């Protein structure tokens, strides 16, 4: 049994991670400022004597005695991280400085939830961990991309200077229950539009690619990485690459929707290709995703159906 701190613990991935680690018998401190996280995601955990919920912003120092730290605190969708780009950068940079300071004081292991966005709009495909990326440092997405790259740099500075035990997960596109209605990413957007029989918005030609991984698989990889002895960055995602246009058609089929597909201009710096090479995760963690896309999407569609139904009932 360990005492584990999860920053962003009421968020999409964080809430699933909190439940998994709690079920494993650990004491959990869930830290969140609820900018994008939701109490609804962890409400069923409140009251468990091994679970503690703390409203706190990681840009402010936090003190506790812990064995492990999972740093997941940061808005992850373009809609949210571009809403206040300065705050996004502060969350990534000041947040990891504060958490690394805590790890140093407690001699705790720390895992940074990094992102595939450190690769930017990649010039190699699929993306491997040794690739340094192709990022626009002054673009509208740079607050997130460069913030995460800076966090990785700080992780290694603390490792070299203070011998901190670090773990870095470069998380690719993730989906599943507990995504917010206003998440703004492609999976939630398409599902909500399809369930409402509204036009599905595809940006550009729809030929840009993504590779979607179900949240339970992501959580399994994070736990395995934390408990491994591997300190270099590791890609965590599903190499099942799809075009956005094909993905939209799949959502229409699975929801039995009457939605039509409409096309809009591609946002600035939007990556053309995204697919992880997970050879390192297979080798070092004995991990690869086990949830097929259709099965994961059916669970996610069911979640959004209930969310929309409950919201409609509430508005009646």
Task: Explain this structure.
This protein is α/β, with parallel strands linked by helices and 316 residues long. The strands form 4 sheets. A 7-stranded parallel β-sheet has the order 3-2-1-4-5-6-11, with helices on both faces. Helix 1 crosses helix 7, helix 6 packs parallel to helix 8 and helix 6 packs across helix 10.
**Helical stretch count?**
10
- SSE arrangement, N to C: EHEHEEHHEHEEHEEEHEEHEHH
Low-confidence stretches: none
What shape does the CA trace take? Answer: globular
Radius of gyration from CA coordinates:
19 Å
Span between termini: 46 Å
What average pLDDT do the residues reach? Answer: 95
Please give the share of residues in helix. Answer: 40-55%
* Class based on secondary structure composition and strand pairing: alpha/beta
Q: Could you tell me the strand content as a percent range?
A: 15-25%
What's the arrangement of strands in the largest beta sheet?
A: 3-2-1-4-5-6-11
What is the total tally of β strands?
A: 13
Largest sheet: 7 strands, parallel
